[in-house]
Amino acid sequence: MLEPKRVKRRRQHRRSLKGNAQRGHTLAFGDFGIKALEPKYITSRQIESCRIAIARRLQRDGQTWIRIFPDMPKTSKPAETRMGKGKGALDHYVAVVKPGRILFEIAGVSEAKAREAMARAAHKLPMKTKFIVRRDYDGP
């Protein structure tokens, strides 16, 4: 008996939010940073609002590093559209963030100023975060 031909379906790969961060989980550039405690997608708009909040608080002091990049496209269908007719159009980009990932780093400022700037940035994010300090940081 002949078996019916199997049609190979093309699957869309989606990066998983499961597990902890395998890379980007230690401070690499600055003395202070914020670390993600929950898995979440972060949009490019959220990253930009965090960057502006940090820059305004630091007032040109120190240096800032953004350790995440929104490289995953997200699509959406228009409102009040019937089902079917294919996948929706590209809407925005997101960064996949797993627990333990360092999101932002700061160097060249006091700990109090860095803590304040990171707190303002953390308010813009949709997840719980933690302020971290480099182990060998002595302070000014």
Automatic annotation (TrEMBL):
GO terms for biological process: translation. Residues 1-17 have a biased composition (Basic residues). The keyword RNA-binding applies. GO terms for molecular function: rRNA binding; structural constituent of ribosome; tRNA binding. Belongs to the universal ribosomal protein uL16 family. PANTHER family: 50S/60S RIBOSOMAL PROTEIN L16, LARGE RIBOSOMAL SUBUNIT PROTEIN UL16M. Part of the 50S ribosomal subunit. This is Large ribosomal subunit protein uL16. It comes from Halalkalibaculum roseum.
